[in-house]
Amino acid sequence: MNIRPIRDGDEAPLADLWTRCGLVRPWNDPFSDIAFARATAQTEIFVGERDSAIIASVMCGHDGHRGWVYYLAVSPDCQGRDLGRAMMTQAEDHLRALDVPKLELMIRETNAKVVQFYEALDYKTEPVIVMSRWLKEPPVAQDD
Ligand SMILES: CC(C)(COP(=O)(O)OP(=O)(O)OC[C@H]1O[C@@H](n2cnc3c(N)ncnc32)[C@H](O)[C@@H]1OP(=O)(O)O)[C@@H](O)C(=O)NCCC(=O)NCCS
């Protein structure tokens, strides 16, 4: 797998990957999320490519304090071959080069099975409650 930054034309296959990996929610349009990330200097999307197909992704960036990871995905037919680990290493190396001291990520309660993946990569569960408030009208009601 070759890992590279996103480029024009990747949007549709990336949205398809995220959909197949169960990461898309009705209130998160993947095309808007890709465009917003690409327009943000501190944010990068890396894709993993094999035989011209996008089989993995990770969105990473920082807010001036912590690094964050979103949309980590490995195509279901390619999982279990250390590609998720490779995408996380890419995100970590990218953020480390920007002097980010700590990387954080959020996991949906409905996706708790992925905790073991991150634990295998030495991530710890933090005693934190995440709260949110929409600053714009959400496109549809949020249910989790
Ligand atoms: C999470 C995901 C990216 C992992 O990718 P992957 O390529 O299958 O994972 P890897 O093969 O790199 O696994 C790395 C390590 O995690 C472990 N691991 C992976 N999935 C695991 C699971 N479900 N339970 C326990 N351990 C797991 C592997 O055994 C491996 O450990 P090892 O190297 O000590 O043997 C992939 O399952 C995925 O795309 N899931 C759907 C999208 C998703 O949930 N993204 C995360 C949102 S927070």
Model description:
With 144 residues, the chain is α+β, with helices and mostly antiparallel strands. It has one domain (2-120): 3-Layer(aba) Sandwich (Aminopeptidase). Helix content is 28%, strand content 23%. It contains four helices and five strands. It has helices spanning 11-20, 30-38, 83-97, 115-120; strands at residues 2-5, 43-50, 53-62, 67-74, 103-105. Strands 1-2-3-4-5 form a five-stranded mixed beta sheet, sandwiched between helices. The longest helix is centred in the middle third of the chain and has 15 residues, at 83-97. It is globular.
Features of the shown structure:
Aminopeptidase, 4 helices, binds coenzyme A
Give the topology.
Layout: E1 2-5, H1 11-20, H2 30-38, E2 43-50, E3 53-62, E4 67-74, H3 83-97, E5 103-105, H4 115-120
Parallel strand pairs: 4-5
Antiparallel strand pairs: 1-2, 2-3, 3-4
